[in-house]
Amino acid sequence: MTTKYVFLTGGVVSSVGKGVTAAAIGRLLKERGFSVSVQKLDPYINVDPGTMSPYQHGEVFVLADGAETDLDLGHYERFIDISLNRVCNVTTGQVYAEVIAKERRGDYLGGTIQVIPHITNEIKRRIGLVSKTTDAEIVLVEIGGTVGDIESLPFLEALRQMRTDVGRENSVYVHVTWLPHIGATNELKTKPTQHSVRELRSIGISPDVIIARSDHHVDGDLREKIALFCDVDLRAVVPMITTPILYEVPLLMDKAGVGDFLIERLGLTARSQPDWTDWEHMVQEVRRDKPTVRVALVGKYIELRDAYMSVREALLHSALSLGIEVIIDWVHSAEIEKGRGWEIVRAADGIIVPGGFGGRGIEGKIQAARYARENKIPYLGLCLGMQLMVIEFTRHVLGDEEVNSTEFDRGTNHPVIDLMPDQRDIADMGGTMRLGLYPCELQPGTIAKGAYQEDVIDERHRHRFEFNNAYRDLLQNAGMRFSGISPDGRLIEIAELADHPFMLGTQFHPEFLSRPNRPHPLFMAFLEAVVEQMSVSKPIEVDTSTINTT
Ligand code: GLN
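A: This is the predicted complex of the input protein with glutamine.
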């Protein structure tokens, strides 16, 4: 089948949920029997978001092939239940780097290199790579940012040209906008949407579908008005009211007829009828009153919850499957360090220390790990959270107060966590960590093995530092179990405590592989331990004045 394209642009304002809309559309098409892939075009100049602060960009989502990508790719993978590859996230930085490298090689034979056609051709080449590297019959392409941004112009121009290249019957333009609500008169306004469509038209793109996001009910008159002023089929003006339940979006969009319209517009006939049984059940479960558990997430980017998007989603997936509600209490590790916020940690039924980089707030996380260990509170450490669990154990169980990671103390003589040998000579920071899917062998009789019920697992990684094997025997003899090890026996991938209901840390990021219909075994095991512990014990108080804060 000829590859079909759905192009998504955003108008009026950013952060209206364009990524979730793209992901939901992908699901609608998959439910109709088509193989789908999604690509995000990001107009910023960074080559990838790997070097950006989570404050700027939210979570970096790591793909199986090790690409560090935009968090929208997490939505795509979770909603559509597919595995994407590195061609699925393109940035201006990548496009220019490629064109400039070609120019230096002399590939352009003396030509003048220009935005049109050289940059736009490179963008189109990269869009074409999606169908070449996957089995996708329908490729969704989402452009980051909002129409009107200077930096997105080359991408929009490439999309405009794509219609001529692939034909009208093989391409649909979907424009996602926002209807502002005026409180004083209680009305929704369509003017910004009209302006945004006019802007898009001036670039040469006429949207076929308008998804009008709103916090309020959108009536038929308003839809007609948008259809009339924006010259779009009334069926293709789709109001999308804000829902607190992300996984309800595909259901709402299907009810609004988006799936059928797109299929028809692309000249396709659905191969199967959507089966939403699982999704409907999931949404009902979110709505149902359930017993609650509190999980303290001790991190340093907590002001921006998007920084921990996949961890949050992974908790939700497991909680739904266990019939409980997880309330995440966000705790700033730097506050913990200063002795503040402990009441939240003490009230928690479980503690998660997620991934992170750099020294700020590290001691606070170590204190949280100590609290979890001493009070037998279930603890899940993700990447950095595993490294800190090891440091805490070595300091306070083995009494070696000086141990550290060379990430935080370059000159430490007690590096229980150390730079990986193949990282020593690396000068560039971008894309050079140990990234992507690696296998790990599970050791019999461990919590990890019990959770996965498998001998070998594959998980996604993103780190530079690792457990230092010089400490292996010492820690093992003191009660730490290394339950997941790389097949060559060299890398510790999972550490857990023998004498604890659930204290487990992973060098990888299990959160990236959790799916709504397939909760991750380790998040399941963690929450099961939380529920179990709640019924057996009440945590004893820890005297925080004895905790090392240096
Ligand atoms: N900073 C640590 C490392 O590079 C942990 C990374 C992470 O948590 N993703 O090894």
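The pocket of glutamine is lined by residues 355-357, 383-384, 407, 462-465 (CB under 6 Å). The radius of gyration is 25 Å.
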